[in-house]
């Protein structure tokens, strides 16, 4: 396993590669999977589905990770407790205000409430439990079209679409959103399923970013691309992709990028150039361009997503720090307005806490049955 170089000012120190014994163990673990890959060329394309299916039943992580948002929605439960069919219009008005408070956003909150009103008029809501179920249905109806491959008219889906030899994932986002940690957790998941992963350090202006990435490479059994402090990010990413293409020993290249404000025009243009540099080496890549959003920013993430999507067309979102915020409802607004699927959500600190997104589990965790609360 090759090591890259991390440069500090004018002196360069090597990025520490995983210990030989760990690498040997990783190779021996991957051998059976690689044999399957040789017999089944479609293995890589199925990895996104495999990862999602394995996590589908892990409702408890969703429930625990959304506790703060659920607390913010406590007023909704209070409204349901004193639910009365006779004065449902007053209840709907208060419900709309409660959803806005939880960062669902005015437009999305109104869409949800209008849907509930139609169900009430149709006579399908009579009790508090009916109302809770209808509320979850409305939220799922907003999330699923963008997160379900069978219903998405855009062809985008919450499953990772790993296509190409190698497949390239470009990870973008603002400063402090958690990109590097998310990349490490994603590398861990992919490596665990048998993929050979290369981490490309495109954040060339912060040496600590490469060090952090190298540590995740060590922990996940991934390879680490060469880092050049102050180098042109597009060139670094293109070189990593070219190495993976020529050496044919990598299935997935995950490209890190420097955090940047979505309002900084020059930096956003640089990001567009990074994407072009990758495509120059591998014409059909990146197969996924994923925006990492900090869940604690609430509805501010909507403007971020718009600007990034205009600069480098996004294929999906990753929502981080959901366990530390009461503003998780904003993800519903982002999906509703931009029709971008959520690929993963971060509900904790461990690699396993980067969970494939599931609209049903998310809605159920926000508005659980009364006995679960």
TrEMBL record:
A Pfam match: SRP54
Gene3D superfamilies per the UniProt record, alphabetical: P-loop containing nucleotide triphosphate hydrolases, Signal recognition particle SRP54, nucleotide-binding domain
Keyword Nucleotide-binding attributed: yes
Subcellular location: Membrane
Membrane topology: Peripheral membrane protein
Domain SRP54-type proteins GTP-binding: 341-354
CDD domains to which the protein is assigned, alphabetical: FtsY (cd17874)
Keywords (A to Z) from UniProt: GTP-binding, Membrane, Nucleotide-binding, Receptor
PROSITE patterns: SRP54 (PS00300)
Record NCBIfam families: ftsY
Xref: PANTHER family: CELL DIVISION PROTEIN FTSY HOMOLOG, CHLOROPLASTIC, SIGNAL RECOGNITION PARTICLE RECEPTOR SUBUNIT ALPHA
Family the entry assigns: Belongs to the GTP-binding SRP family.
Protein name: SRP54-type proteins GTP-binding domain-containing protein
Native species: Tetradesmus obliquus (Green alga)
Native organism taxonomy: Eukaryota, Viridiplantae, Chlorophyta, core chlorophytes, Chlorophyceae
